[in-house]
Amino acid sequence: MSSEDTGLPEGWQVRRSNTKNLPYYFHAATKDSRWEPPAGTDTDKLKRYMAQYHSSRSISSAAFSAPEGKIRAAHLLVKHRDSRRPASWREPKITRTYEEAEQLIKRYMDQINSGDVTLSELATTESDCSSASKGGDLGFFAKGDMQKEFEDAAFQLKKGEMSNVVATASGLHLIQRLE
């Protein structure tokens, strides 16, 4: 892929981690690798590229069975400048305020609730979490594996249900229980 296709600066490419099965950014000449896109990235082009080539919306939930005491959920994360790590695969430095993040995630919630788009589809291009490459799918987790606010909301949901906006130290989430 050329840099025009990915939106990455010259010499950078998207690769997939063998251990985490997540995309990361690599510069072959310098051997630099990082989870966040490098400075100078055209984020709109990168979002389109990631949605086309690094989305796994086609993962069938039938391929998974819930381990005892665990649930499976997907989420869409919107970070703000006061998040514990205000950077993501989409933006190397997140500067939006909490209020701006809240408006954005509520707009996403409205789009999902109207049936225009699924949480998985939106998470693929809009989530500030690296799980975006999997449509926001976080896999299975047990109590104690996630931040308390996230976990409390996720475990209260029935299969297929989506939460209201959930605030954690990471940012603002919409959570959908898958299993």
Automatic annotation (TrEMBL):
Would the keyword Iron-sulfur be found if you checked this record's keyword annotation?
Answer: no
| Domain WW span(s) in chain numbering | 6-40
Q: Name one Pfam family in it.
A: Rotamase
Q: Which UniProt keywords apply?
A: Isomerase, Rotamase
Q: Which GO terms describe its cellular component?
A: cytosol; nucleus
Q: Where is the PpiC domain?
A: 68-179
State any single GO MF term: peptidyl-prolyl cis-trans isomerase activity
Q: Which Gene3D superfamilies match?
A: 2.20.70.10, 3.10.50.40
Report the EC code(s) recorded for this entry: 5.2.1.8
* Isomerase as UniProt keyword: yes
Q: Which GO terms describe its biological process?
A: positive regulation of transcription initiation by RNA polymerase II
Q: What is this protein called?
A: Peptidyl-prolyl cis-trans isomerase
Q: Mind giving the lineage of the organism this protein is from?
A: Eukaryota, Fungi, Dikarya, Ascomycota, Pezizomycotina
